[in-house]
Automatic annotation (TrEMBL):
CDD domains: metallo-hydrolase-like_MBL-fold. This is Metallo-beta-lactamase domain-containing protein. Gene3D superfamilies: Ribonuclease Z/Hydroxyacylglutathione hydrolase-like. SMART domains: Lactamase_B. Residues 17-210 form the Metallo-beta-lactamase domain. It comes from the Bacteria. It comes from Ardenticatena maritima.
Length: 300
């Protein structure tokens, strides 16, 4: 089936830096689960669909990170397909500046952060759905299960069809964990909850947003939990007897095999470490302390 990898009778995916899921029917209609990072990914997807005799009738975005909806603009112009996006996340699809802005502490981001990795082209949003309230989406003749796996993003959905779960960034493949060591997260506690939820879902194949699909979700969850627990330890150790956010970031990134080397990778890592600082604060392990205009994190 062209460059598409078949998963079950009516599901497939296009592998890449971001995996795009496809659910289709016997009439050749296809629902896309995310769209990749840019028009090039969108063009590759279009060619793969053409070769397979499939025509997209909708895009379901799982969350609003630019690498997951960057192909929307191209595909919507090519096929005039409607877009489904989760609540809250839909605002970023429509106003992409919000992503680099929140990563840059809410300020107007410099040009170096206004790139395709953090700021995709705006996407139309035709339908807003709530993964926590809407367990089923019916598009055309296809019924897709919706599962709330928020944590990596403020709101994030996993989409199920037949025996396949397109899990978005609820978990990462082994090769991705090895490369990045501390994958991006928004809310550590909810990311852990999402991993536990994956364990209970009735699917045989789980497709991550990044990495290789797996039939062993138990092992995948264990690997992702181990990465989270390691990050918690690194951040707690970096706080020590007290440290500023920048000192914690420096101490943690010094332990990485591939530390940030660009402004984009730095702000992503800084935001992730901030999520761990917030998590430790909510657990009562550390607390923020502001003295003479300096924010420090101190043990409790």
């Amino acid at each position: 089936m062209s460059d598409l990898r078949t998963l079950s009778a009516h599901t497939a995916y296009l592998p890449g830096s971001v995996n795009v899921g496809i659910v289709f029917n016997d009439a050749g209609q296809a629902v896309l689960i995310d769209s990749g990072g840019d028009k090039h990914h969108g063009r590759t997807l279009r060619k793969a669909l053409d070769a397979a005799g499939l025509r997209p009738i909708a895009i379901i975005n799982t969350h609003s990170h630019a690498d997951h909806y960057g192909g929307n603009d191209y595909l919507c112009r090519q096929f005039a397909v409607p877009v489904w996006a989760p609540r809250f996340e839909e605002a970023i699809l429509r106003y992409p500046l919000l992503e680099p802005m929140y990563l840059f502490d809410g300020a107007s981001p410099p040009t170096a952060l206004r790139n395709k990795w953090l700021m995709a082209k705006p996407s139309p949003v035709d339908h807003v759905y709530d993964p926590a309230e809407e367990p089923l989406l019916e598009i055309g003749e296809m019924r897709l299960q919706v599962h709330d796996v928020s944590g990596h993003a403020v709101v994030q959905a996993a989409i199920g069809a037949e025996n396949v779960c397109f899990a978005a960034d609820a978990f990462f493949g082994t090769e991705v964990l090895n490369k990045y060591e501390i994958p991006f997260t928004h809310n550590v506690a909810r990311q852990i909850e999402a991993l536990e939820r994956l364990r209970s879902l009735p699917y045989d194949i789980f497709v991550p947003g990044h990495g290789t699909p797996t039939e062993d979700i138990e092992r995948a969850v264990q690997e992702n939990r181990a990465a989270i627990e390691r990050a918690i330890t690194w951040v707690r150790d970096a706080v020590g007897d007290g440290a500023t956010t920048d000192e914690v970031v420096h101490a943690v990134t010094a332990r990485l095999e591939n530390p940030p080397t660009t402004l984009s990778t730095y702000v992503l890592m800084r935001a992730t470490i901030a999520a761990y600082l917030a998590h430790l604060t909510e657990q009562g392990t550390i607390a923020p302390e502001v003295v003479r205009g300096v924010l420090r994190w101190v043990p409790q």
